Description:
Elements (H helix, E strand, L loop, with lengths): L1 H30 L28 H20 L1 H8 L5 H21 L9 H28 L2 H8 L2 H13 L5 H53 L5 H20 L11 H25 L5 H8 L2 H11 L7 H17 L14 H11 L3
Amino acid sequence: MGDERNVIGRYTALARRRARQEEGADADGAGAGGKRTVRERIPRARRRPAEPGQGRRGGGARWAWAGAAAVGAAALAWSTSFSVTKLALERTPPLTVGALRFCLAAVLLAVAVRLQRRWKPPSVRERLEMAAAGLLGITLYFGLENFGVDLATASDATLIVASYPVVTFALEFALFRRRPAPAALLGMALAVGGVVLIVRDNADSAGSQRLLGDLLLALGGLAWAAYNLLLVARRPRMSALTATYYQTLGGGLAFAAAALTEHRDWGGLAPVDIGLMAYLAGVCSIGGFLCYNVGLRSISSTTAVTILNTIPVFGVVSAVVVAGESVTKMQILGGAVVVAGVVLSLRRDPSGHDESPPGETEKADGEKAGAET
């Protein structure tokens, strides 16, 4: 109770100080012949905070469209990651691709982090915790993804990774004994069924190597789910950009150490390889992250999740156009079932309440976003 009174006292003092500052500024304006509007006479501390997409000049609708476009750009960037990775793997080993991508991304993020207003480095303990999280969410997950894409196809990866939010929900329900809503259960079953359709089709048509790649991609879903639950449990007290930087730094350095095992397969990087790595680091890892966070300022997390469900569509198109892959009808069917399952598991009921446990919808967009940062 004492802590609450201290917080209220500090808030009240801050509100009064701001009100006095604004009154002084308004007095200066009035003395110059200016008139204050009703909103200008209300202290900022008492004003109602604007909803996403509201309170901006030009109307909320325009900003909502801009936010949706930003999230759409992030989805497009992330969806091309698999096909670009497939091209990079033609001449560079999987662990080396991860090392080059995330070490370069860490350098770019180091600059972006220090451009934040009033940025202060977190404590050593917090930095080590985020670096350790990077071992799970970057080194382990993207290591499995790179090996999976190398053995399978970019289109397989796109469709299987679409099921990752459902894997996270299922793991959380299993660990924390939370009872999922009926819609969430049905969505999980559909997503798993869609993955089975994709994997079974590949097992029948492409042999054991592609099947192994698909299984590695599915195993990556467990690594990604564990990573998300770890972040939820630790709740880092820093900006998303700062947390991403230290995770990328830790994961990139671990990738660099692991890549030493592939030194016999190293060769000179051609200009096209450098361009592919720069694209993965700059566009997929950083550009997508920035676009996504800009978009979330103007639209709700539910809208963002809906837009992110276009990633499988963009990803398959990218696999066909960029990597020159062919897609079977069974893959398309399996991908559609996966997307339907994810949408159903994130669905809100008509009353506006989330059918999944509190906070799940808000976490889901971050989980899907982070899968390609």
